[in-house]
Design a protein that fits this description.
42% helix; single chain; Rossmann fold; alpha/beta; EC 1.3.1.9; Trans-2-enoyl-CoA_reductase; 17% strand; binds nicotinamide-adenine-dinucleotide; 13 helices; 7-stranded parallel β-sheet; two-stranded antiparallel sheet
Length: 392
């Protein structure tokens, strides 16, 4: 099969196995060139391991610290007629690289919110790892079925309190236009917290501790985006931001509930980047295209792997972590500092349909977007026939 990108709206509906493998290898190379001296994790559970920040966490744990990694993801396998998802191919490539480096790697594909998955993972940890000493929580999902009530909740991306009108860039139509978003109802806010808040993170830690597969002194972190004024109305102070605030509550609850095991839970605030999750958020393609421009000019641009390698090195396993007043690890300072934000704001205010491509780094954004699905990578020959049937 010759595989070319099929982009529909903010998503690409297919993926290239060879391209995904090349992108995984590139991240592995980065981590191998930035190996830390410090001791790190040994047995790591990555919940949401197949793309974006979770994949970068798995790569850093394995290839930076030599850790055994067990991953969980929700990906589609390929068929004769349809490619697998990017996360499927990324996981296959990660397994191959890890195993040829002599590192344990296994992945369970299914719904991480379910109790069945938690039980399967516990059995796997007991059989293969004994206990885990690091749990990364990196899920991004539009819905969650609560295993206790059986109710399926959907998350919403809406402002809180009042309607909001702002600029956005429609990647499909190549158009800068205004978008008006009505404020969320109380129910929509509550449902978004159910999906993307801290409840499931807590349930994971409770399940692992109850099954005695959580090591003494284990660390755990869940990822958040805080941002600044430009994104607050649609992110930080919006429905998703309310859900992310709930992560702060959950981190404190995990620390207190599992204090006998000396569990250390932190929320980690990371920078805005192109991932499958962020490209679905209104305003983000425009905002990220502008920060790419500014941060590349400043020499501070980072991708998932640089952010996560830094998080492990400086915060999770470093002596001098940057913590904020909420006890969160902060890796977003190069984006959120006032000087950089002022430059982004100046560009934002000037941006029109006519000058968008000159003012922004949309070329860089689009390249990163296609790369998420294994496309637009120089070393890959996209005219070649490739077999989509890649297995783990
Ligand atoms: P992503 O879409 O690249 O990754 C999501 C992962 O979750 C994938 O591995 C997917 O398979 C898995 N997943 C989704 N639903 C699942 C389910 N029901 N069961 C099992 N696995 C499931 O997203 P990302 O951007 O890397 O986001 C990860 C976390 O980082 C999120 O909490 C997000 O809010 C946060 N974050 C993202 C950004 C950003 O700019 N992308 C910035 C800061 C923080």
């Amino acid at each position: 099969m010759v595989i070319k990108p099929k982009v529909r709206g903010f998503i690409c509906t297919n993926a290239h196995p060879v391209g995904c493998a090349a992108a995984v290898k590139e991240q592995i190379n980065y981590v191998q060139q930035h190996k830390p001296d410090a001791e790190g994790p040994k047995n790591v559970l990555v919940i949401g391991c197949s793309t974006g920040y979770g994949l970068a966490s798995r790569i850093t744990a394995a290839f930076g610290y030599g850790a055994k990694t067990l991953g969980i993801c929700f990906e589609k396998a390929p068929t004769d007629r349809k490619t697998g998802t990017a996360g499927w191919y990324n996981t296959a490539a990660f397994h191959q690289e890890a195993r040829s480096a002599g590192l344990y790697a296994d992945t369970l594909n299914g719904d991480a919110f379910s109790d069945e998955m938690k039980n399967q993972v516990i059995d796997k940890i007991k059989a293969d790892l004994g206990k885990v000493d690091l749990v990364i929580y990196s899920l991004a999902s539009p819905r969650r079925t609560d295993p206790e009530s059986g109710i399926t909740y959907k998350s919403t991306l809406k402002p809180v309190g009042q309607a909001y009108t702002t600029k956005t860039y429609d990647t499909d139509k190549d158009k800068v236009h205004e978008v008006s978003l009505e404020p969320a109802t109380d129910e929509e806010i509550a449902h978004t917290i159910k999906v993307m808040g801290g409840e499931d993170w807590e349930r994971w830690l409770n399940a692992l501790a109850d099954a005695d597969v959580l090591a003494d002194g284990a660390k755990t972190t869940a990822y958040t985006y805080i941002g600044k004024e430009l994104t607050w109305p649609i992110y930080g102070q919006a429905t998703i931001g309310k859900a992310k605030e709930d992560l702060d509550r959950a981190a404190a609850a995990i620390n207190s509930k599992h204090s006998e095991l000396s569990v250390e839970a932190h929320v980690s605030s990371l920078k805005a980047l192109v991932t499958q999750a962020s490209s679905a958020i209104p305003v983000m393609p425009l905002y990220i295209s502008l920060i790419y421009k500014v941060m590349k000019e400043e020499g501070t641009h980072e991708g998932c792997i640089e952010q996560i390698q830094g998080l492990f090195n400086e915060c999770l396993y470093g002596d001098n972590p940057t913590l904020d007043e909420q006890n969160r690890y902060r890796m977003d300072g190069k984006e959120t500092n006032d000087q950089t934000q002022a430059k982004i704001k100046a560009l934002w205010d000037q941006t029109t349909q006519e000058n968008f491509h000159q003012l922004s780094d949309y070329k860089g954004y689009n390249h990163e977007f296609l790369k998420l699905f294994g496309f637009d990578i120089d070393s890959v020959d996209y005219e070649q026939d490739v077999d989509p049937m890649v297995n783990w």
